[in-house]
């Protein structure tokens, strides 16, 4: 333990200090411990963040990674009615869109030319989708850019596709893998507690179904990320139990690559904007975000060493602060971002590699470009003098180059039509 840590811990309340000291010694932080740490304020919070930063240094070192990727949300038409979602549109909406294969392929090719190593495909559960649709999408991507990694389809989408195919999750995932799928985003998790899920998303995938999809993917050698949406109607105990559940999954399968806490973006979300549920908070406060990320490092770092800050949710300034609270990854360049933007996020849809490297260096850390599996693609020095000139770094107006969500919903070329006209698969 460094002198700085010793000095800091001297001013901390006894209950918090005991947990922090035990975590530095390698002991597990329990759900009850996490609840105690969630009340850290002032000196206690500073100590919590300092310990999280020290554990980060021990577990993953001083590198901060990012991936060059592109999101492709190929349709916003969805049969679900999740109360936190402002992205989805009904089949009758004038703003419904559905991208044909040719447009998906164009976006993939453009991403590859811009230096992307990954495309992330997620979308609404459209009635136009068939059991073959996700499989065909993988083939389209691989034909457009054979070397690009396909990070695609939430557990909710896997459940949907498997149900349309009338096959078990494992069989459907094996077909997706054969078609080129590389990994799954661990989204559609929100809070893994069915009591809460019935309040905010009553028709959404259940906790056990989510776990079944994720563990089936891991057994097939398909890694997943993991997420948690917080700052809405959940309790502190809900958050801690969620992280503990992810920890148990990781100890069983070892297939989770990272944990990404996601602040609830409230502005346009029906859950908040339409007051559909009582007691909804307008997302977490700043200190609440710092606490959550720091606790995540203490609870999960030994088993899931990569902790990612979402610049889309938090903004780049807060994301940089989180680098001192246990974070070692700043996510992807994205190029397109529709889901958080639709809910009211105002942090843009592209983060250039040069910008990410700048904030990483300013935090005193070493930037590295990674691939989806956290293998290092490129290392960078302490200064930008020898940095390569990359196509994305020249982008000034991302909406003009890649298109925005608003323009997509108004583009007559991609207007959603019922099954039989513009159908994927």
Key attributes of the depicted protein:
single chain; 425 residues; alpha/beta; TIM Barrel; 4-stranded mixed sheet; 4-stranded parallel sheet; 10 strands; globular
Structure described in brief:
The protein is of the alpha/beta class and 425 residues long. The chain contains 18 helices and 10 strands. The protein has a single domain (57-414), classed as Alpha-Beta Barrel (TIM Barrel).
Write structural notes for this entry.
- The chain is α/β, with parallel strands linked by helices.
- Helix content is 44%, strand content 11%.
- It has one domain: Aldolase class I (TIM Barrel), CATH 3.20.20.70.
- It contains 18 helices and 10 strands.
- Strand 3, helix 6 and strand 4 form a beta-alpha-beta unit.
- The protein is globular.
- The C terminus is likely disordered.
Query: Per CATH, what is the topology?
Result: TIM Barrel
DSSP summary, beta strand count? 10
Q: Which segments are poorly predicted (pLDDT under 50) over 5 or more consecutive residues?
A: 420-425
Strand content: 5-15%
Order of helices and strands: HHHHEEHEHEHHEHHEHEHHHEHHEEHH
Overall pLDDT level:
92
CATH architecture: Alpha-Beta Barrel
Biggest sheet descriptor: 4 strands, mixed
Distance between the termini: 57 Å
Query: Based on CA inertia axes, which overall geometry fits?
Result: globular
CATH superfamily: Aldolase class I
Level-1 CATH class name: Alpha Beta
Helix count equals 18
For this structure, the quaternary state is single chain
Please render the helix and strand layout as text.
Blueprint (H helix, E strand, L loop, with lengths): L2 H8 L3 H11 L6 H7 L5 H18 L2 E5 L1 E4 L28 H13 L4 E4 L11 H12 L4 E4 L2 H11 L3 H11 L1 E3 L10 H7 L6 H13 L4 E7 L5 H18 L2 E8 L6 H4 L12 H15 L10 H12 L6 E4 L6 H5 L9 H10 L3 E5 L5 E4 L18 H5 L2 H6 L15
Parallel strand pairs: 1-8, 1-9, 2-3, 3-4, 4-5, 6-7
Antiparallel strand pairs: 9-10
Helix pairs in contact: 2-4, 3-11, 4-13, 5-6, 7-8, 7-10, 8-10
């Amino acid at each position: 333990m460094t002198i700085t840590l010793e000095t800091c811990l001297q001013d901390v309340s006894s209950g918090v200090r005991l947990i922090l000291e035990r975590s530095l010694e390698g002991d597990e932080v329990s759900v009850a411990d996490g609840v105690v740490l969630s009340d850290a304020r002032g000196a206690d919070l500073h100590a919590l963040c300092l310990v999280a930063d020290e554990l980060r240094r021990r577990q993953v070192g001083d590198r901060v990674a990012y991936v060059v990727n592109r999101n492709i949300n190929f349709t916003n038409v969805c049969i679900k009615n999740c109360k936190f979602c402002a992205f989805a549109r009904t089949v009758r909406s004038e703003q419904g869109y559905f991208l044909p294969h040719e447009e998906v392929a164009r976006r993939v090719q453009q991403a590859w030319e811009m230096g992307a190593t990954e495309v992330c495909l997620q979308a609404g559960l459209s009635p136009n989708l068939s059991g073959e649709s996700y499989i065909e999408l993988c083939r389209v991507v691989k034909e457009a850019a054979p070397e690009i990694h396909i990070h695609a389809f939430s557990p909710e989408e896997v459940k949907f596709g498997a149900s349309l195919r009338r096959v078990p999750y494992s069989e459907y995932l094996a077909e997706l893998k054969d078609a080129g799928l590389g990994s799954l985003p661990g989204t559609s998790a929100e809070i893994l507690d069915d009591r809460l899920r019935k309040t905010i998303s009553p028709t959404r995938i259940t906790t056990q179904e989510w776990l079944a999809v994720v563990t089936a993917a891991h057994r097939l050698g398909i890694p997943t990320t993991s997420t948690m949406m917080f700052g809405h109607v959940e309790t502190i105990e809900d958050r801690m139990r969620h992280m503990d559940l992810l920890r148990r999954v990781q100890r069983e399968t070892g297939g989770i690559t990272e944990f990404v806490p996601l602040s609830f973006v409230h502005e346009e979300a029906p859950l908040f904007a339409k007051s559909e549920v009582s007691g909804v908070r307008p997302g977490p406060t700043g200190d609440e975000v710092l606490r959550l990320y720091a606790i995540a490092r203490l609870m999960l770092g030994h088993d899931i060493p990569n902790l990612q800050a979402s610049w889309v949710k938090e903004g780049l300034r807060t994301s940089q602060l989180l680098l001192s609270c246990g974070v070692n990854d700043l996510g992807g360049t994205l190029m397109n971002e529709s889901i958080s933007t639709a809910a009211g996020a105002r942090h843009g849809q592209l983060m250039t590699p040069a910008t990410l490297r700048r904030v990483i260096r300013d935090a005193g850390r070493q930037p590295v470009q990674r691939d989806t599996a956290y293998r290092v693609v490129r290392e960078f020095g302490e200064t930008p003098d020898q940095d390569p000139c990359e196509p994305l770094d020249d982008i000034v107006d991302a909406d003009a180059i890649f298109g925005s969500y608003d323009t997509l919903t108004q583009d007559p070329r991609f207007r959603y039509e019922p099954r039989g006209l513009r159908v994927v698969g």
